[in-house]
User: Which sequence fits this backbone?
């Protein structure tokens, strides 16, 4: 079977979706023996942050959509985007007509606009790694002008109609599926665990971990409010933030705070495993996600999690009271209570963490990739 994955880039440091695509592609090529191509638009000659299997072919279209972010004139940006989109379709159509793949998977990037229109004989899959409708609702509330709100509403309406044109529309969680029940082709396939390990977290470590961009979207402002309330009772504990700094005002806030010595900022790393096993609790306060890879990685390493029940992901991963705690959105009092409970109790951290590791098997690479393989075979008839 020949499979093509389309994505903007895999050169992005620490990107969750990029990591998942490479891992799935590598498994399809190395373990299941399929012919796999990764097709990108914005690599700019950089190596992949996550290494490809030598069996994978990489084709770069060199369209550089990301350059459009520098253009401040809205109309000029729009027309430049449409021009790139036309060139993208021309190049992609040439490749697909030549390669004659059995399956083409779009990661809901720019090609989603036209991929389904290319008649190369392949089955087309649209894969969504974000909880589209809840995210649009939050972005609408944050918008500061009528033009921003109009663009958000247009994009929501447009993107909501695209999935019906594809042979399958894949979402990552049962929670997200509830927003798409009117689409007969929607199916849930979660992200797989990126690794398995016999090791587990250090439950004696007085270190709390969160991984992701240091930004408003990731709810770091909410986490800092919680930490400010928790740390006076646990002065020996550290909060570790691993990720690129997006919102510098959050760093300014930490530096100006009374708790600055208890917070460490670390850059993204491909050796993320060491960060998990040197911690004893994982926390997450994002405002929206798809299915956060960091939650899967945390449970694979036996970390108990305290997370807001944002859409989407935590409800599919955490079994409340068994292997972690789910906290209602913006209920900071309960978040402080549950986090403090875990920080004060080594035995409870270990009990919940070890149970999280057991429960994580449903996301194993083998289980999830067998689901993907059966889906591909069922759609294409190829082996």
Assistant:
């Amino acid at each position: 079977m020949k499979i093509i994955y389309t994505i903007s880039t895999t050169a992005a440091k620490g990107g969750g979706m990029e990591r998942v695509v490479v891992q799935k592609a590598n498994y399809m090529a190395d373990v299941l023996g399929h012919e796999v191509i990764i097709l990108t638009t914005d690599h700019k000659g950089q190596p992949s942050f996550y290494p490809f299997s030598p069996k994978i072919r990489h084709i770069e279209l060199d369209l550089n959509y990301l350059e459009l972010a520098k253009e401040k004139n809205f109309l000029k940006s729009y027309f430049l985007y449409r021009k790139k989109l036309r060139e993208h379709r021309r190049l992609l159509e040439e490749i697909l007509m030549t390669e004659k793949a059995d399956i083409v998977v779009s990661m809901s990037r720019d090609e989603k606009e036209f991929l389904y229109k290319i008649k190369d004989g392949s089955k087309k899959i649209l894969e969504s790694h974000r909880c589209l409708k809840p995210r649009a609702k939050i972005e609408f509330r944050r918008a500061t002008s009528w033009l921003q709100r109009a663009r958000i509403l247009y994009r929501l309406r447009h993107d909501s109609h695209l999935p019906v044109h594809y042979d399958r529309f894949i979402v990552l969680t049962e929670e997200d599926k509830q927003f798409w029940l009117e689409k007969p082709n929607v199916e849930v396939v979660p992200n797989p665990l990126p690794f398995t390990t016999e090791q587990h977290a250090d439950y004696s470590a007085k270190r709390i971990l969160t991984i992701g961009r240091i930004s408003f979207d990731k709810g770091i402002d909410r986490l800092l409010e919680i930490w400010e309330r928790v740390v006076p009772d646990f002065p020996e504990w550290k909060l570790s933030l691993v990720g690129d700094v997006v919102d510098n005002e959050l760093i300014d806030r930490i530096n100006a705070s009374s708790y600055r010595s208890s917070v460490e900022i670390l850059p993204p790393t491909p050796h993320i495993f060491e960060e998990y096993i040197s911690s004893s609790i994982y926390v997450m306060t994002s405002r929206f996600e798809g299915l956060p890879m960091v939650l899967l990685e945390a449970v694979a390493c036996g970390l108990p999690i305290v997370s807001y029940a944002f859409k989407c992901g935590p409800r599919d991963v955490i079994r409340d009271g068994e292997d972690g705690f789910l906290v209602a959105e913006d209920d900071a009092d309960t978040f402080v209570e549950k986090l403090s409970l875990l920080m004060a109790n080594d035995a409870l951290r270990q009990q919940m963490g070890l149970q999280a590791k057991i429960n994580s098997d449903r996301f194993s690479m083998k289980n999830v990739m067998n689901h993907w393989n059966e889906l591909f075979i069922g759609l294409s008839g190829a082996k």
Q: What stands out?
A: The first helix runs from residue 16 to 30.
